[in-house]
Amino acid sequence: MLKIQDNFSDYKSKHDLYNNESNLIKLFKLFKGTSSFPSKWYKEGKLVVNTTKSFGLRGLQFGEWLTTEDKYNYTLALYSALFDLNKILLFKNKDIGMRGMLGISIGSRGIPNAYAHYETNQYIINLSRYHRKDRLPYKQKKECEAMGSSECKKWRFLYTGGPGSLAHEYGHFLDNFIATKIEPKRGSVYLTGNPGSIRAGREKINEDKYPIHHIMEEIMYNVIFNERGLTSYYQRIRKHNPYYYKRVEIWARLFEQYIAYKMKQRGMKNHFLTSPKYSSPVYMNKSELERIVPYIDRLLFEVRDKLKRFFY
What we know:
Blueprint: H1 21-32, H2 39-44, H3 47-54, E1 57-62, H4 68-89, E2 102-106, E3 116-119, E4 124-127, H5 138-147, H6 149-159, H7 166-182, H8 211-224, E5 225-226, E6 229-230, H9 232-237, H10 247-265, H11 286-311
Parallel strand pairs: 1-2, 2-4
Antiparallel strand pairs: 3-4, 5-6
């Protein structure tokens, strides 16, 4: 497993920051709406340290092109996203990062033209940094320039690059980590199957021995089939690039939709945590999603139970 460490000093004074606390609060609220800002952590100069410790992360890694301002802003956004994610998952806080197993990289280790990606068995989520102004599409570039430098930077920070992809990538992390560490099953890298699998049929799994694998298989089967045969959703995504009906990708999109659905029920929003990155046909509609939600509820209940026995 690759080591990942903080590569930015977290003990800067407030005066070393390009941005001030007032502006950070405004940015924090743009991602979360009405929310409390962790001003105590900010004033102590320990935002990164407290974020990694509170959520049990292996570490944060920042790209060399990120400014100090960017690093603090992304850390604030990440803190808010993990905090809200855990309101839905109901894990113990440090179990979000599986007690030092999950690393998060921002603006580093990226893949060209990808908003984000997940490194299998390295347990690292990578989120790309905001786009450079000169690399925006022509229309967006002109609109951004018209905003003025400060507003253009804020817009790019909020709406380009990795923000909105965290829930999707965390879905990949859960899929991989549970299959390899919490409920290991011979030959299983992901609960959903091998990374390239487009298998539609149901695998027979011993429910008593592998309850989480069994529930995931039920989820995937019900995503693909109903009493009439192939679901409308599966038929719809089969018309697209095979990437969209890989089992690992079906699950990651389903997980991000599940998180968004549960947040909406609670009157929550968090743009950094989840925001659609694909065209609507490859997502489930409301009735399709609501049919699968109880299965995911059941899976997460079983995961929480297994985590108690694994960590405690």
